[in-house]
Write a structure and sequence with these properties.
Elements lengths: L13 H10 L3 E5 L3 H14 L3 E6 H7 L1 H17 L7 E8 L2 H9 L4 E4 L6 H15 L5 E6 L4 E3 L2 E3 L7 H11 L3 E4 L16 E2 L5 E2 L5 H10 L5 E3 L7 H9 L12 H8 L3 E6 L1 H17 L6 H24 L6
Parallel strand pairs: 1-2, 1-12, 2-3, 3-4, 4-5, 5-8, 8-11, 11-12
Antiparallel strand pairs: 6-7, 9-10
Length: 332
């Protein structure tokens, strides 16, 4: 029996995106896999009064179990209210749905938004698949994100060797023929903690890699063709170097990890980009905190003693993203 997201207290992205495009900010789309990540996201967004999209990849869905995810999302809404957020704006979203079946399953299990990723398919096949998902999802008022262009990097089951920038000439036809509610584009962001090869970057005086700039010219052309239409950026973690350094200091081996500079993300939020996906930064913050505890206190074996500090660091990072990067604080 299908579960309606509305009964879980969730919302879809329609009003979220409309307000974000008009207001010149972006909604944070934070990926989560477990309770500590979810606690950190909700407590950060409740404190900052930021609308939020809880993102679940296909890998996270397998890891956490789809039934548990449904109740975790319902619990997240209740937790937000417990923290004093009277009208929480929380969306549960499938990230990188690979086929119609997984999108249908998520629609049936209480998700309020799904992404169908047909970007690796030929153009007409991407349209056909995306349209099929839209027609099913819209019966239940579930919003759908499609994608044109391919991001390089690795994120769970999504792997691509190189980027394929979105072609602005294709966007009107894709949106009109599919009926999608938002469009993920490729303008130079990338999945994972190693978003760029060293030879693609320059180095500053401290030897830190500086990535190439995002293709704002492509974004501007897309905006011209689709004025006011919600645009999504995937692969937008900034890979904070303090976390990379801490991980490596406490026994890690992250080499040449580099992300998208926050000032470029701030610039993107002033456009029609109204959803920015952040996953790797959460993994880095959590891993850095856990490694520190386990190295400094090698006799510690209570998971709460290292997962608690990890949760605290995550909350701090999420609050920073809402307040200082995406501009979503105070918008819900």
């Amino acid at each position: 029996m299908a579960v309606s997201y509305k009964k879980l207290g969730l919302v879809n992205t329609v009003e979220m995106f409309k307000k974000a495009v008009k207001g010149g900010y972006a909604i944070p789309a934070f990926n989560f896999n477990n309770m500590e990540q979810l606690q950190a996201i909700i407590s950060a967004c409740a404190e900052k009064r930021s609308p939020v999209i809880l993102q679940v990849s296909s890998g996270a869905r397998k890891y956490a179990n789809q039934t548990l995810l449904r109740y975790m999302a319902e619990g997240a809404v209740a937790y937000a209210k417990e923290l004093g957020w009277e009208n929480p704006q929380i969306c549960l979203h499938l990230d990188h749905g690979a086929d119609f079946e997984i999108c249908k399953s998520c629609c049936d299990m209480g998700f309020s938004s799904v992404m169908i990723d047909g970007s690796s398919l030929p153009f007409d096949e991407n349209i056909a698949l995306t349209k099929k998902v839209v027609e099913y999802a819209h019966q239940f008022d579930v919003t759908v994100e499609g994608e044109l262009g391919v991001l390089a990097g690795v994120e769970d089951d999504v792997v691509a060797e190189k980027s394929d920038y979105t072609q602005p000439k294709d966007v009107i036809e894709f949106v009109s023929r599919t009926g999608v509610d938002s469009l993920a584009i490729s303008i130079g962001t990338s999945h994972g903690a190693n978003k760029f090869r060293p030879e693609q970057c320059t180095r500053n005086e401290n030897g830190i890699l500086i990535p190439p700039a995002l293709r704002f010219d492509i974004l501007k052309e897309i905006e011209t063709k689709l004025p006011g239409f919600p645009i999504v950026l995937h692969g937008s973690s900034s890979v904070p170097q303090e976390y990379v350094a801490q991980i490596n200091h406490f026994g890690g081996a992250l080499k040449d990890a580099v992300g998208i500079p926050e000032e470029q993300l701030r610039k993107a939020t002033k456009s029609a980009v109204c959803k920015i996906n952040i996953d790797s930064d959460g993994r880095l913050a959590m891993t850095a905190a856990i490694r520190k505890v386990l190295v400094e206190k090698p006799a510690e074996f209570d998971p709460r003693k290292y997962l608690g500090p990890a949760r605290d660091e995550l909350k701090k990072m999420y609050m920073h993203k809402c307040e200082d990067v995406l501009g979503s604080a105070g918008k819900a």
